[in-house]
Amino acid sequence: MSKKIKVGVIGAGRIGKIHAQSVTYHIPEAEVKTIADVYADKIKDWAHSLGIENVTNDYHDILNDPEIDAVLICSSTDTHSQITIEAAKAGKHIFCEKPIDYDLDRIHAALKAVEEAGVKFQVGFNRRFDHNFKQVRELIKAGKIGEPHIIKITSRDPEPPPVEYVKVSGGIFLDMTIHDFDMARYLSGSEVEEVYAQGAVLVDPAIGEAGDVDTAVITLKFKNGAIGIIDNSRKAVYGYDQRVEVFGSKGCVTVSNDTPSSAVLSTVEGVMSEKPKYFFLERYMDSFVQEMKDFFDAIVNNKETPVTGIDGLKPVLIGLAAKKSLEEGRPVKVGQ
Amino acid sequence: MSKKIKVGVIGAGRIGKIHAQSVTYHIPEAEVKTIADVYADKIKDWAHSLGIENVTNDYHDILNDPEIDAVLICSSTDTHSQITIEAAKAGKHIFCEKPIDYDLDRIHAALKAVEEAGVKFQVGFNRRFDHNFKQVRELIKAGKIGEPHIIKITSRDPEPPPVEYVKVSGGIFLDMTIHDFDMARYLSGSEVEEVYAQGAVLVDPAIGEAGDVDTAVITLKFKNGAIGIIDNSRKAVYGYDQRVEVFGSKGCVTVSNDTPSSAVLSTVEGVMSEKPKYFFLERYMDSFVQEMKDFFDAIVNNKETPVTGIDGLKPVLIGLAAKKSLEEGRPVKVGQ
Amino acid sequence: MSKKIKVGVIGAGRIGKIHAQSVTYHIPEAEVKTIADVYADKIKDWAHSLGIENVTNDYHDILNDPEIDAVLICSSTDTHSQITIEAAKAGKHIFCEKPIDYDLDRIHAALKAVEEAGVKFQVGFNRRFDHNFKQVRELIKAGKIGEPHIIKITSRDPEPPPVEYVKVSGGIFLDMTIHDFDMARYLSGSEVEEVYAQGAVLVDPAIGEAGDVDTAVITLKFKNGAIGIIDNSRKAVYGYDQRVEVFGSKGCVTVSNDTPSSAVLSTVEGVMSEKPKYFFLERYMDSFVQEMKDFFDAIVNNKETPVTGIDGLKPVLIGLAAKKSLEEGRPVKVGQ
Amino acid sequence: MSKKIKVGVIGAGRIGKIHAQSVTYHIPEAEVKTIADVYADKIKDWAHSLGIENVTNDYHDILNDPEIDAVLICSSTDTHSQITIEAAKAGKHIFCEKPIDYDLDRIHAALKAVEEAGVKFQVGFNRRFDHNFKQVRELIKAGKIGEPHIIKITSRDPEPPPVEYVKVSGGIFLDMTIHDFDMARYLSGSEVEEVYAQGAVLVDPAIGEAGDVDTAVITLKFKNGAIGIIDNSRKAVYGYDQRVEVFGSKGCVTVSNDTPSSAVLSTVEGVMSEKPKYFFLERYMDSFVQEMKDFFDAIVNNKETPVTGIDGLKPVLIGLAAKKSLEEGRPVKVGQ
Asked: C108: burial class by Cβ within 10 Å (0-12, 13-18, 19+)?
């Protein structure tokens, strides 16, 4: 391939910047040509330091640029589906941050536009690209644990987001657990048919007042007969707790948290090791790079992307079922 | 105390023998005077090797012996409540293997008899005396994890019992999970209010044909707001899997499985450590001794026993609720 | 075997009591008939509580008792070789605490007496019977690590003995490292040919004034080409540190410390697990029982004992070479 | 700082390429202007893909370029000291791969040239920048283990280099252990006074025929009284084994190997985890980036480099002493 893939980044918040850097430093076959952000002025210096020439506050400049092959949609959630539709119509390959939308009709419209345009489409469920979870998936695919029977996912944040954020977040199931729903599908290789959610306000009453819960346990019934358990907390004082365990007919595989170092200190007070890496930036940085590599690999080699439109839709369906389950105090079937 | 406590053991199956040995070797203040078993002839040699003089096939010989202070009821489950009642009326202190009964009326009758007689009564939930779980409880009591939010119990057997046993076992919740229900109460220091059980037949279709499940996930709602999760399997090919995790406002405590040794072997094939201790005899032998020590300590020092009649009743109530939940596919309140 | 082996215990200090209990509770084929101690009066109650009838202050009462088959020599070190000689002449099987003696002539005399009498003789290197070290030896014997290349032994006490004891202890190499020299031979399956010892006084100057060191590193050259390393400290503030690692052509095996429980506590301050079991009584209690089992097994089934007279001699030879090495600041060959 | 530091890379073998990439992608304040390699033609494409414009086969083009501020000397070992002298005279800041030289006179000449020129000089002991070892050093500096008493370094390669390489490598102590000698100084914060080395040919007889050993154990005596132990093997079949342990008056700190993932697989065969990361490229990639960051930080902020000329000299002195010790079979003082 003689020519580099030209990329437009839409939205230069934290995650948009990370992706722009990944493309610049780790994807030799691609380069960011233009970056669009409503606060274009504020990101110019940063963009130039990466060698990105064009900065605009109108993402249409990217969509209208015939030289640009692919876009990374990193703007606010409420714009994802709309920009996806426009980008698809403009014939751009699309990497879209999760979730595509909270509204099922809008998700379907976006996926339809993608399908009609025949462009590549990948959703930003980065945890699939994490070295630990990937290894679990590989071991399962290799048959090392036989048929999966029980899938356990622990996912706890080090501290809750601001209550203002909680109010517009769509609720814990669509904001936080959605990653775990994706993980459940990824690890099990099966679809979730039914959900039962329990929730409680144990961390901060203000979260309850905002209509959400901060502690949750969700059980899942998979099509292949397996049972899943997710446990969430908005506040694990020891840091970001991200573990999974998959138990099956021939064995069990677990992964534990990554730590800044393997140092273990033994003193008269006890034996101490390090806390988990603090939060998702520390923990998942490598996975953000890897998902970009795989996205561009799908473009270059015309392969299916590793996280498709369906993979973007399904966790939203599970999340909506979980929400309903919590409201009604009973198990709820996942919609189609 | 100048005189040794005289003990009668009723039922000399596997667990009866273990308790008789514990008393003989580890409880200097007590001695087994008489042992009763329907197959008295078969256990004579064994009894004499322990220095136990009297062997009978009628447990009334124990209840009628005024010299005997305490009885250990280790006979078949269906006899527990009846013998408890008779022993209480005879004024004996009682250690009763779990469960007291599967029938609530009979349990209540037994507990009433115990109360009226004013004798000590302890139920054989031995896992409370295990070094690992005890340490978890101590840390929680010491406030090290703050308020408990999420309690997770993993309890998997290395292999299923014979299907003939499954048929009369009362079902997985009353036969196997009952230990975990007790553990949930012990660790949380709170009562279970509601149960939602999911179950599947993934290990052996014959277990399903016998009307039971072999894989189960049970979520618990505690009075103190915490949420509990128990996961069970009748067959973990790598051995007896007995772990807990309690997550709270100030931290999280976990215990892992005990292994025969700490040896770790690194070769070209990987890094290998030992499987968990095989089953409950290997895993919990020390806890069987410890529960005896605490039982006799309660007698000698006139203290409350560490596992009371209520502690015997509650897990049965939770088990019955779990059964109903599985049958009806919905969360069920635990009865009183 | 219809008749129980009658045992005499000589010396009822801490270790003598442990062995008497092991025989009473764990060796059905043996029983302690008589126990001898210079403070006979002080141990009577304890002896009777175990059901041991005879207590004497003259060990000759044991040697002269034709009913007694075996003796456990647990008296002070300076009496070991002499009593061994007398017991051998009296035709008793002998279990002798380590070391046989610090004087080579006296060791040789004792071993000669044993050989002439044809009695069983076992030296109390209990660590060979520890579940961890035994497993390492089994893995090596099974060829799992191929040919051993490097053998590392870490052996650190939680606190130094009283300086008065240090003065008469024979020095760290004969008092403390002697266990590690035995371990080195046991694990390697080879003899030590040369020793280089480095020592320092880093824990307590009083130990230096007593003519000893409290910190030591000893390298060993084995006949089979392997190299060994032992590191010792008289004071590990976190507790008894007892680990080994054996590296070979096909892999490496390590064992870590045993802990009171597997509890791991994660808080805002870090991830904490338990310190090692405090000292040798906590750590090695099971191994004391096991060495007794194997001793009586050797008698009953007329097998070689698992720790022979040569096994008692060799570590003393290595210890003397280490002493000389430290004094002369050079590697020293081990004598025959 | 408005202008970027211009860098010349001398030698574009494996390590030269890694450093050039680190500067390009991770050091915003620097850029590689020119790269020199005897096989200039072969690296042109690679250089251009990084945006490096100038490629030459004569490193004097770099030294003579007044625009270039700093050089990275990554050429073959025998050229390090000579190029260091020339670069110092040309007023360039110098990052020099280890070792500076095997010849003491040439090292001293290089250090003298650096001193006279007043340029920054850093030696490539990258392991000091590894997250694990750095954390050990931090804990020691923070007084967490008190005074260091025993320092243990395990350093084993996954496979031996070609025998042709062994012949010109300077021997295991100067080629491989030299990193461990540096680590010993780094961790202890003290100088090594005396060395005793034991070596054996246990991996490959051809290494012995080439006049070297492939297995070694080296004990070190530090100025501060501590004792050090290094164990080396040219072939650990399970991968690159890089661990340290520092034991002191108030505690002990250890680090274990990094693994590709934390996955643990339990099956009927045992409990398996991953082997260490394969070799230094996998294990130490982050440390290569970090040492560059610190080098340029020293230039930009006019600070002392973290690995000075003395730090480059001392390990060679220790290595030479170890060589002599092995040849003469006795402990040897380290020269000045």
From this structure: middle
Nearest to A267 among D136, D144, D265 (CB): D144
Indicate whether this complex's ipTM tops 0.85. Answer: yes
Q: How far is B112 from chain A (nearest CA, A)?
A: 36
Q: Residues near C93 by Cβ (< 8 Å), separated by ≥ 6?
A: C69, C70, C71, C119, C120, C121, C295, C299
C-beta of residue C255 within 8 angstroms of C-beta of residue C136? yes
A251: contact with B, CB 8 A cutoff: yes
- Alpha helix positions (H), chain C: 14-26, 40-49, 60-63, 80-89, 104-117, 131-141, 163-168, 172-175, 177-188, 205-209, 280-300, 309-328
CA dist., res. D225 & res. D137, Å (int):
18
Cβ pairs bridging B and D (under 8 Å): 40
Sign of CA dihedral D50, D53, D59, D60: negative
Of D28, D260, D261, the CB nearest to A49: D28
In this prediction, the residues of chain B whose per-residue pLDDT falls under 70 are 1-2
Mean pLDDT of C297-305: 97
The reply to whether residue C256 touches residue B262, judged by beta carbons under 8 angstroms, is yes
Element (H, E) at A44: helix A40-49
Of B238, B266, B267, the CB nearest to D271: B238
pLDDT tens digit sequence for D278-334: 999 999 999 999 999 999 999 999 999 999 999 999 999 999 999 999 999 999 999
Q: Token pair for residue A175?
A: 């904001």
Q: Is A4:A29 a contact under the CB 8 Å cutoff?
A: yes
Enumerate the H helices of B210-308 as residue ranges.
280-300
The stretches in chain A having pLDDT less than 50 are 1
Answer whether C267 sits within 8 Å of B254, measured CB to CB.
no
- Nearest Cα neighbor of D235 from A38, C252, A125, A32 is C252
Q: What is the model's pTM?
A: 0.96
* Cα B232 to Cα B36: distance, rounded to the nearest angstrom: 35
- In DSSP notation, D140-186 reads HHTTTT-SEEEEEEEEE-SSPPPHHHHHHTT-HHHHTHHHHHHHHHH
Residue with tokens 């070209």: B268
d(CA D98, CA D316): 10
Tokens 């439109």 label which residue? A309
